[in-house]
Amino acid sequence: MASRQIREKALNMLRSLPRVGIYNIRDNPGSRKTQKRGRGQHGGDKHGAGNKGSGQRQNYMRLGYETGNNPFYLRFPSENYYKGHHLKRQYPPLSLESLQTLIDLNRIDTSKPIDLAEIVKSGCYTFYPDEKQFGVHLTDEGANIFQAKVNIEVQWASETVIAAIEKNGGTITTAYFDPHSLFLLKNPKRYFQSGQAIPRRMIPPPDAIEYYTDASKRGYLADPEKVSQARLELAQKFGYELPKIEDDPDYEMLCERKDPRQIFYGLEPGWIINLKDEVILKPKDEQLIQYYSS
Amino acid sequence: MAAVWRSCGPFLKGFAGKTSQIPNNAADFIGRLRPVPVLILPVNYSSYAKSPFVYKIEERYNYDVVKKPIEWKYVERLLPFETIPNPLIKDKYPSGWVPPKEEAKELPYFIHRSKNHFLPVYLKISLRGSKKISIIRKIDGDIWLLNDELKKFLKDKNKMYVETRVHELAQFIEVKGDYVIDIRNWALSKGF
Fold first, then answer.
1. Where would you find the membrane-spanning parts of this chain (chain A) (predicted)?
2. Is residue B76 in a domain?
């Protein structure tokens, strides 16, 4: 009698309870045990570290050390092509295919000029300025499927990439940013919240000046007339008809460029952005204006 | 005399102006005292910008304060997305991405898209690359019917029996082997 009552009570309770789901189940009590390391005379034997020597003492030797032998990495004369690799600038890649995917998924707006801040904002690309990474290298993977008309600013681009973008009526610029500016471009909101004035962009180091003044690389310091000539030359080389951007309805957007001292589009160095009150502080002092315009 | 002593340091502050109270041997005692070095404790600011060298600048320089200027649109452009934006309806997507179709909602089962608007079909590789398992996540509705249809499709396509594991509670199906491309194409053909 009693058992039937209990059974009915239990069934009634089950009916009133919420459905069993992934959010309200848990393991049986005591079903999981954390493994403990024994400490006693025989309980704590070797703890899996083995018998004698560096294994037992767990003094992990440095990488490449061969316990007194002439190590393998020192046995032969070094190869010179890695010399200074830790000082070289790195440009983490982004393919044209990924860029096209970001545009298709509405992560990047092509009606506005695209720069490094916009690419990072999409959430699918990141870089680390403190690890000698100096921005984006646009690679030619997916150059045959790329169909967007963009005004893009990258830090490194090959000839194929430039051709793929200009074929669709877009424009591309390669621009240098110093590490401090790159921190700003990576997370502009954090910098604005810190209440500091937007700094000037520095000029490229001596070994990068050649690249960024080259019209065939679409460098931002190149002569605009030489750039338009290089555009024609590249169109002839790859055998496509160069679309006239002068007749384009988005001509103004396609021709928008940053000043060599400017980090963000439309915002000048020296300005302070107040996100809370939606206020921009522009310097009026002549000393400041002269400093930021130089 | 008192003026000289006063400059010697804090030790004699109590005696300032009270020359009569100073004991007779005080002058000898003071002669041995060195000037007390001023202790300068190093102050660590969290950054140079937060040091007084910088935050006092605002008093020195003149700024033009503009509320919601025309340039504010450039600032808004830089602010991060609050949520992942939804894709717009376009004639074609050159990247190969396919939008989900409305007709898929009428089927007895449904596969939701991931937060990045891709199909949740993945390949799990374990045991140093020797074990490959394709997994379909986010399945709603009749998961067993989906399992049967998918199994039949994969068997016809590859002319080989495929092993599957259905997890009804966690809403996923695991397929033994690398069938990610086949499964993805099948799901796209159904309209998910």
1. none
2. no
**Residues of A whose CB is below 8 A from B97:** 101, 104-105
| B97/A101 touch (CB, cutoff 8 Å), yes or no | yes
Inter-chain touch A196–B65, beta carbons under 8 Å: no
For residue A282, give every residue at least 6 positions away whose Cβ sits within 8 Å of its Cβ, in sequence order, or none: A268, A270, A271, B63, B64, B66
H or E element at residue A171: strand A171-174
Nearest residue in B to A111, CA atom: B77
* Contact between B94 and A194 using a beta-carbon 8 Å cutoff: no
Q: How far is CA B51 from the centre of its chain?
A: 28
- Which domains are delineated in chain A? 88-293 (3.100.10.10)
Distance between A70 CA and the closest CA of chain B, angstroms: 32
Residue B154 lies in a domain: yes
CB pairs under 8 A between A and B: 97
Q: Are B164 and B147 in contact (CB under 8 A)?
A: yes
Q: Is A278 an interface residue toward B (CB < 8 Å)?
A: yes
The parent domain of residue B19 ranges over 2-31
CATH number at B137 reads 3.30.780.10
Model confidence over B123-136: pLDDT tens digits? 999 998 999 999 99
B49 vs A147, A194, A283: nearest CB: A194
**Distant-in-sequence, close-in-space partners of A202: CB < 8 Å, separation ≥ 6:** A178, A180, A181
Is ipTM strictly over 0.95?
no
Amino acid at A153: E
- Which pTM value belongs to this model? 0.74
Among partner residues B66, B67, B93, which is closest to A104 by beta-carbon distance?
Answer: B93
Average pLDDT of chain B to the nearest whole number: 83
Q: Which of B75, B95, B170 is facing A104, going by the closest CB pair? A: B95
| Average pLDDT of adjacent 10-residue blocks, chain A of 294 residues | 84 86 86 84 78 82 88 84 86 97 95 96 95 96 95 96 96 96 96 92 94 96 96 96 92 94 94 93 90 86
CA distance A238 to A254: 22
Query: For residues A44 and A38, is the Cβ–Cβ distance under 8 A?
Result: yes
Q: Based on C-alpha coordinates, what's the Rg of chain B?
A: 40
Q: Is residue B90 part of a domain?
A: no
Over residues B59-79, mean pLDDT:
88
